[in-house]
Amino acid sequence: MYDFLNGLFGGLFGQLGGMFSALLTTIGNFFSGITSYIGSVATGLFNALATFFSTLFKPLLDLLDGILYLFQQVFTLVVLALKVVAALFGLLISFAAGIISTLTSFAGWNGSTQYYSMPDPLQQGVGAVTGIMGQTGLNTLPLVLAVFVWLLAAFAVVKIVGSRA
């Protein structure tokens, strides 16, 4: 009887197990298909939204990029203009210092000469030459020529600054 019941219930349970396994496989395939379909729809939707928004906001982003590039170039020009102005002020200050130095030399004031000294033989030679030039009146000639050089330099600076290209 055991063999009979074993054969009867074993076949029944084997059959039920096969049907249950097939049912679970079918349900698993169904949910796998549904999740695959939902995933592909979500991927397509995300790609469509990304394309839509990138197309929609591309002109705005290009405009923003252009405005930022304009600001960058304006600040570059401002920096270059400040460098030019600083260089012109340096040139004018050097020019004014040179003129003042020439005029003070022309007036006979040479400032403190304690820091600058020549060797004695050279000092004696220069002293002899300047003494002879002082007697003849030629010692003022280099100062007058220096004033003319500065005037020519001033004319050149005004011509450069005032020129229009």
Which structural traits does this protein have?
mainly alpha, rod-shaped
Provide a brief overview of the structure.
The protein has helices spanning 2-107, 120-136, 141-162.
Which whole number gives the mean pLDDT?
81
Poorly predicted runs? none
Order of helices and strands: HHH
Whole-Å distance between the termini?
121 Å
Provide an overview of this structure.
- With 165 residues, the chain is mainly alpha-helical.
- The protein contains 3 helices and no strands.
Describe how the helices and strands are arranged:
Layout: H1 2-107, H2 120-136, H3 141-162
Helix pairs in contact: 1-3
